[in-house]
Design brief:
The complex is a heterodimer of chains A (about 80) and B (about 675). By secondary structure, chain A is of the alpha+beta class. Chain A is built from three helices and five strands. By secondary structure, chain B is α/β, with parallel strands linked by helices. Chain B has 14 helices and 35 strands. The chains are: A alpha+beta (about 80), B alpha/beta (about 675). At the A-B interface, β1, β2, β3, β4 and β5 of A face α3, β7, α5, β9 and α6 of B.
Chain lengths: ~80, ~675
């Protein structure tokens, strides 16, 4: 359970129009879970900030559980793979 | 693409059609989430194109063997790649030695080059695969611009991480694409839309909220029912049909009977050669002749053509039989199988010809009756038009939706079998820059190209209005009036679970008369109806949403179809139509009731005038069946004498509900 895997933290429509502010918000939120701003930057894979709000990050199962309980978060979902058709 | 557009009646030679009405999609930007592009392909030539639209915010990203400045032009205006999610999940560098690929938007697989050609490739004369399917290749919107978002990587089957897919959606929305095309699927069982683990439902929700139609492949898990993917009601889900084109390959038996098989054989004629069917002595002689496990212990095949039988409709049985026959010195293969619509070449001009069981049995009886059976195999030819017929492809995933059976999926069908389009030089099926490929992957960009044309003609139509236009005007027959069959065992007439509204009819879709429009409120209605909580829906749309205490009915979601999976006695549902034709119009309802079902429409006449352009109506559906039934099909058409706005109706009586019917 301590293994980090990519999770998508989905937060719905954007809270701001400024993409930089949105990414900063994502880092701040992730930092509250992983312990520091540096660790948040390290574990974040993507910040989704144009069409909607959310981020992809490498999280342990317990971190994913904690972050899913934050009021800003709609869902935390494990990364998954698609194939060509 | 050398036949598709003529077949769908948007030929470039005809001056009066949607293609010419819209300047071939000029100014529209088609985004694709796929395996990248081969930018040197001639299909990306930008001859005669105007400058890149000023509103475009995207760009081309440089990387391995891809120069963002010089590899893009006025046709290919965007190219980005997303691999961080894929790498982070695998916890190791991507091994491009084992899986040749490029750390850039460059396509090694060929899939993205193929799909982008279909949607928006430029005109290329004399395109063919070794002379087969010869003609002028072009996309549905040949003057549209292409933006490629590479999210799939060259590991077996092509793998695309949902984290990367979501980032591509995020960027594409920002960049300003007009339509998004995704030829991707996941695995069954599916995840619910808002909880979905694949990113497509979530990303597409926001794209659609920004006015961008999202077109997705229905997937290739057919012909079994309930296998359709990408089922969210805001997605346009595409099934695959054949074209009126085939590749007959003459097999002349030693008794002078000629059978026309199907192949892509462009080699020399295999003249008068021995013909064998491997059979074992003993109780189960036919086992040795099963294509996927051929055994030559009792049969010499050296220098001969081999006949085998298989129940596997996929390509794998043919591939393994080819390997076995070639290794044993055989010079050709005839495969008897049910149609799978996944043709392919068999190595370097090795003839492998597919026939059905009936013809295969005829060949077998000849072998068994002749002392020295012989055969001659001639090169394949391209047959266009009659008598080649249109069928829903075997592989095309079927409805009803396993998540929400009350929302009809797939929405629409388009050609997706043996489409010729550009590919990558690393594609083993490619010859002279072009390859023939099959899949709902190929059908989806046909629709994307058509939607690019519709967007050019009707820039203010919502994604739902565009979906409604193509569904309500689709052909229920082929373009020549012949019925469309759905391939499977047995072959049957196609119904809405095979092809949604039917085969796309681009010209009629441009003038639908009425549309079943939807906006965010309608999608919220859907999310409330299927049980998502207020909090999740509120965050999704960033508005305070309180679902009504009396849960809304999913049957009332304003989709251009009526599907009732659990009818017991009767149900009443509501639809709302918006007039997009002449402001003063009167439409009358015509109902074709499903067997044993009574349909009453109220009102049955809709009168539109300058202050009433949107009207709701109710449909009461009641059943006379007294047992749990399968689905019966019908339709409801609103007609003003010029426009016929038809939605499919599917109803299943369930006296005993939530009941697994396997007695």
């Amino acid at each position: 359970s301590a293994e980090s895997r990519v999770h998508i933290v989905y937060m719905g429509e954007r809270q701001h129009n400024d993409p930089k502010l949105i990414t900063k918000f994502h880092h701040d939120l992730l930092a509250t879970i992983v312990g520091s701003k540096e660790a948040a930057v390290d574990s974040m894979v993507y910040s989704y900030r144009h069409g909607f709000s959310g981020f992809a990050a490498k999280l342990t199962q317990s971190q994913a559980q904690q972050i899913s309980e934050l009021p800003e978060v709609v869902h935390v979902i494990p990364n998954r793979f698609h194939s060509l058709q | 693409t050398t036949r598709t557009w003529d077949y769908l009646d948007i030929s470039s030679y005809s001056p009066l059609n949607l293609l010419h009405d819209t300047h071939m999609g000029d100014g529209i930007i088609i985004g694709l989430l796929d395996t990248g592009v081969w930018p040197e392909s001639v299909v990306f030539n930008d001859d005669g194109l105007e400058p890149i639209p000023a509103r475009w915010k995207g760009h081309c990203e440089s990387g391995q063997l891809f120069n963002g400045t010089t590899d893009c032009n006025r046709k290919l205006i965007g190219a980005k790649y997303f691999i961080d999610g894929f790498l982070a999940e695998n916890n190791q560098p991507f091994n491009t030695t084992d899986n040749p690929d490029y750390m850039s938007p460059r396509d090694s697989f060929g899939h993205g080059t193929h799909t982008s050609t279909i949607a928006g490739g430029s005109f290329v004369a004399n395109a063919s695969y070794k002379g087969l399917a010869l003609g002028t290749s072009r996309g549905g919107a040949p003057r549209a611009r292409i933006a490629m978002y590479k999210v799939c990587w060259n590991v077996p089957q092509g793998q695309c991480s949902s984290a990367d897919i979501l980032k591509a959606f995020d960027e594409a929305i920002h960049d300003g694409v007009d339509v998004l095309s995704l030829s991707l699927g996941t695995q069954i069982p599916l995840f619910a839309e808002v909880d979905e683990r694949d990113g497509i439902a979530i990303g597409s929700f926001h794209a659609v909220a920004n006015g961008i139609p999202v077109v997705c492949a229905a997937a290739n898990d057919g012909p079994a029912a309930q296998t359709v993917h990408n089922t969210a009601p805001w997605i346009i889900t595409v099934a695959a049909t054949t074209l009126d084109r085939s590749f007959p390959t003459p097999i002349m038996l030693g008794n002078n009977v000629t059978i026309l098989g199907q192949a892509w054989y462009a080699g020399k004629e295999i003249g008068l050669t021995g013909l064998v069917y491997p059979e074992n002595p003993g109780l189960r002689p036919a086992l040795a002749g099963v294509c996927e496990s051929l055994s030559f212990n009792h049969t010499s095949v050296d220098g001969k053509v081999v006949l085998c039988f298989t129940t596997v409709t996929r390509r794998s049985a043919v591939s393994s039989a080819v390997s076995a026959v070639r290794a044993a010195g055989g010079v050709g293969l005839i495969v008897a199988k049910n149609p799978g619509h996944v043709m392919g070449p068999c190595g370097d001009d090795f003839p492998c010809v597919v026939v059905d069981y009936e013809l295969g049995t005829q060949i077998l009886f000849y072998i068994r009756s002749a002392r020295s059976p012989t055969v001659t195999i001639s090169p394949s030819k391209t047959l266009v038009g009659k008598p080649a017929s249109t069928k829903v492809a075997t592989f095309s995933s079927r409805g009803p939706s396993s998540i929400t059976p009350a929302i009809l999926k797939p929405d629409i069908a388009a050609p997706g079998v043996s489409l010729l389009a550009a590919s990558s030089p690393l594609d083993t099926f490619m010859n002279g820059g072009f390859a023939l490929h099959s899949g709902t992957s190929m059908a989806a960009p046909v629709i994307s190209g058509i939607i690019a044309l519709l967007k050019a003609k009707h820039p203010n139509w919502s994604p739902a209005a565009i979906r409604s236009a193509i569904v309500t005007t689709a052909w229920k027959t082929d373009p020549f009036g012949e019925p469309i069959f759905a391939e499977g065992s047995p072959r049957k007439l196609a119904d809405p679970f095979d092809f949604g509204g039917g085969l796309v009819n681009p010209n009629r879709a441009s003038k639908p008369g009425l549309v079943y429009d939807m906006d965010t409120d309608d999608y919220v209605h859907y999310l409330c109806a299927v049980g998502y909580n207020d909090s999740a829906i509120s965050k999704l749309v960033r508005q305070g949403i309180a679902c009504p205490s009396a849960k809304p009915s999913v049957l009332d979601v304003n989709v251009p179809s009526i599907t009732i999976p659990n009818l017991r006695n009767s149900a009443t549902l509501t639809r709302r139509v918006t007039n997009v034709g002449p402001p003063n119009s009167t439409y009358k309802a015509l109902v074709e009731s499903p067997f044993g079902i009574t349909i009453t429409v109220t009102p049955n006449i809709l009168v539109f005038h300058s202050t009433a352009q949107e009207i709701s109506y109710q449909v009461r559906v009641s059943t006379s069946h007294q047992v749990n039934t399968g689905y019966y099909f019908g339709s409801l058409t609103w007609t003003d004498g010029v426009h016929n706005v038809t939605i499919p109706i599917s109803a299943r009586t369930q006296i005993l509900q939530n009941y697994a019917d396997e007695n």
